[in-house]
Design a protein that fits this description.
By secondary structure, the chain is of the alpha+beta class. Helices cover 26% and strands 38% of the residues. It is globular.
Length: 145
C-alpha cells in the first residue's frame, strides 16, 4: 500500500457514546467515522454538501467494514486519519484509522467504498475530470487538501 496524503480530524468520545460496558458502543464508531471523518474529508476535497447542492451529485456508501482493535472511553481524545486507497471514474475506496490522540494507539479502522450518484436519476455517474485529476493528485501525494 502506498502512503498517500492523509486527511486528519479530531474529536473526543462523547459520554452518550458509552455503553453499559463502560466503553464506546460499536455503533458510535461508525458515527465518528462517517459524520466526522468522511464528511470532513469529503468537504475538504470538494464533494461535500455544497457540491451536492450545486451539482445534484453525491456519494452513496456501497460497503463499510469496521475493525475494533482497542477500546476507548468517555472523553478520550481521538485523531482520525483518512487515506484514499484507490478510485475509478465512479468509486472511491478509502480507509479511516482512529487513534487515541493522547496515547497514540490504533483503536479502530473503517474501510469504505462509495459510488458517485446523480441524485436526479439515483444512478451512478462519472466524477467530473477535475475531480478525477484531484483524486490522482491525492493518490500520488501531490495534492494538499
Amino acid at each position: 500500500m502506498t502512503a498517500y496524503d492523509l486527511f486528519e480530524t479530531f474529536t473526543e468520545v462523547k459520554p452518550e457514546w458509552i455503553d453499559y460496558n463502560g466503553h464506546m458502543n460499536m455503533g458510535y464508531y461508525l458515527v465518528a467515522f462517517d459524520e466526522i471523518a468522511t464528511d470532513g474529508w469529503f468537504e475538504s476535497i470538494g464533494i461535500g454538501p455544497e457540491h451536492k447542492n450545486a451539482t445534484n451529485h453525491s456519494t452513496f456508501t456501497l460497503a463499510s467494514n469496521i475493525d475494533y482493535l482497542r477500546e476507548v472511553v468517555a472523553c478520550d481524545p481521538l485523531r482520525i486519519t483518512t487515506q484514499l486507497l484507490d478510485w475509478d471514474h465512479k468509486r472511491l475506496h478509502y480507509i479511516h484509522t482512529m487513534y487515541h490522540a493522547g496515547e497514540g494507539y490504533v483503536a479502530a479502522t473503517n474501510e469504505c467504498l462509495t459510488m458517485y450518484i446523480d441524485m436526479a436519476t439515483r444512478r451512478s455517474t462519472a466524477f467530473k475530470d477535475s475531480l478525477q485529476s484531484l483524486f490522482a493528485e491525492i493518490q500520488i501525494g501531490r495534492a494538499h487538501v
